[in-house]
């Protein structure tokens, strides 16, 4: 088979892998920082047929539930708690909630220690048996088994990162900023802003344990500050957004060994931008054709087109998010819409995604949510 034919076949298979969700209506959950404008986790209905986002309401009270993860069964929700003290220890917490299928309201099931300060990211494995958490302040990661009733169990693994990088103010210690799993549920990836590395761990879904991999990490340029990480739907490529350098690094991924090999690093900002900005979230469109990243300061979403044969990105520009400090955003399961959470202006805005070009068009919709910093969709049954 020629290289040209192989590339065309790979591209076609990638497009075929995108199956939009059948459900027309979703509940959207918003993680927040609690203050006078927020009391916890909020929710709103979203109509994917029209792009209409309803008014938000409180789903469940919590303290600083900044990042959320939905269980594969859609029966449970998990939230980190960026708190200074958990049960007398200087560590954050992780909460498990049951989702009421009829109303979407949340009922607290239980809580566990995050085994480190400043928990900022949580994900649930594909088997729904483990929650994995990254602690920014503590520079550590933890895996928490999930019982059949959705409750979190004591940690199966708690791993402390060590080291530093070149920026004395931001990188004098490890700062684990996210943890994600590969499509095979075989390896976990912890982007550590303080180390300029994406640390790789072998994951055992049967025991919920993590172990250092060989090779142990993918690296980015010194001073980049890797933050969030996302896989391409083919599983052949992955992308990390670098908070301090305002870049996205594309990696080729070896699913057998867990190895990440850098293939490109590209800016998220306009070439003529001279202000201060830091990136936050990176999301791959479910079709695999586009990648998006958020800029806090420029207050925009950067749009990239993916070369589906090589995984490299082509910059297509930036779209202002209609607010300040867009820390998080997400593509709806149908791939037609993006919801951007503007932490600095307490609002969430809606954009239509052009399915051919990936370009974003503001719909003019904006709802008020206090300090929104995470967006998660759940199909309404």
Characterise the protein shown here.
This protein has 381 residues and is mostly beta strands. It has one domain (3-379): 7 Propeller (Methylamine Dehydrogenase, Chain H), CATH 2.130.10. The chain is built from one helix and 29 strands. The strands form seven sheets. Strands 1, 2, 3, 4 and 29 form a five-stranded antiparallel β-sheet that branches. Strand 5 (68-70) and strand 6 form a beta hairpin. Mean pLDDT is 94; it is low at 1-17.
The SSE string, one letter per element, is: HEEEEEEEEEEEEEEEEEEEEEEEEEEEEE
Overall mean pLDDT:
94
- The domain count comes to 1
Low-confidence stretches: 1-17
For the termini, the CA-CA separation is 45 Å
Q: With helices defined by DSSP (H or I, 4 residues minimum), what is the helix count?
A: 1
**From the coordinates shown, what is the CATH architecture?**
7 Propeller
DSSP strand content: over 45%
Largest sheet, in brief, is: 5 strands, antiparallel
CATH top level label? Mainly Beta
Which structural class matches the secondary elements? mainly beta
Which helices and strands, and how do they pair?
Layout: H1 3-16, E1 25-32, E2 40-47, E3 52-53, E4 57-61, E5 68-70, E6 76-81, E7 93-99, E8 106-113, E9 119-124, E10 130-135, E11 140-145, E12 157-160, E13 176-181, E14 187-192, E15 197-204, E16 209-219, E17 226-231, E18 237-242, E19 247-254, E20 259-267, E21 278-284, E22 290-296, E23 300-306, E24 313-320, E25 326-331, E26 337-342, E27 347-353, E28 360-368, E29 372-379
Antiparallel strand pairs: 1-2, 1-29, 2-3, 2-4, 5-6, 6-7, 7-8, 9-10, 10-11, 11-12, 13-14, 14-15, 15-16, 17-18, 18-19, 19-20, 21-22, 22-23, 23-24, 25-26, 26-27, 27-28
């Amino acid at each position: 088979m020629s290289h040209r034919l192989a590339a065309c076949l790979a591209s076609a298979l990638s497009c075929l892998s995108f199956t939009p969700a059948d459900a027309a209506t979703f509940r959207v959950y918003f993680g927040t920082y609690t203050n006078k404008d927020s009391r916890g986790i909020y929710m709103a209905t979203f109509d994917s047929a029209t792009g209409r986002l309803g008014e938000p309401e409180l789903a469940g009270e919590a303290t600083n539930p900044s990042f959320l993860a939905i269980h594969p069964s859609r029966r449970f929700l998990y939230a980190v708690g960026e708190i200074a003290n958990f049960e007398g220890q200087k560590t954050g917490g992780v909460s498990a909630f049951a989702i009421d299928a009829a109303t979407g309201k949340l009922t607290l099931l239980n809580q566990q220690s995050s085994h480190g300060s400043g928990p900022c990211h949580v994900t649930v494995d594909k088997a729904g048996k483990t929650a994995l958490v990254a602690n920014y302040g503590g520079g550590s990661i933890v895996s928490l088994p999930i019982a059949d009733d959705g409750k979190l169990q004591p940690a199966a693994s708690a791993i402390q990162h060590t080291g530093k990088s070149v920026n004395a103010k931001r990188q004098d210690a490890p700062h684990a900023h996210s943890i994600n799993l590969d499509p095979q549920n075989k390896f976990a990836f912890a982007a550590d802003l303080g180390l300029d590395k994406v640390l790789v761990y072998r994951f055992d879904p049967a025991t919920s344990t993590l172990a250092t991999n060989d090779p142990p990490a993918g690296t980015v340029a010194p001073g980049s500050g890797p933050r969030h990480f996302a896989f391409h739907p083919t599983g052949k490529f992955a992308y990390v957004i670098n908070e301090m350098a305002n870049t996205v690094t594309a990696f080729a991924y070896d699913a057998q060994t867990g190895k990440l090999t850098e293939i490109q690093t590209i800016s998220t900002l306009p070439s003529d931008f001279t202000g201060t900005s830091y990136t936050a979230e990176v999301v791959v469109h479910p079709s695999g054709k586009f990648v998006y990243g958020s800029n806090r300061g420029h207050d925009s979403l950067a749009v990239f087109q993916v070369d589906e044969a090589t995984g490299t990105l082509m910059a297509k520009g930036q779209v202002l998010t209609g607010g300040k400090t867009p820390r998080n955003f997400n593509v709806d399961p149908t791939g037609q819409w993006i919801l951007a959470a503007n932490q600095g202006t307490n609002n969430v805005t809606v954009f239509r995604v052009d399915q051919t070009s990936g370009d974003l068009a503001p719909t003019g919709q904006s709802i008020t949510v206090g300090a929104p910093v995470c967006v998660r969709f759940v199909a309404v049954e």
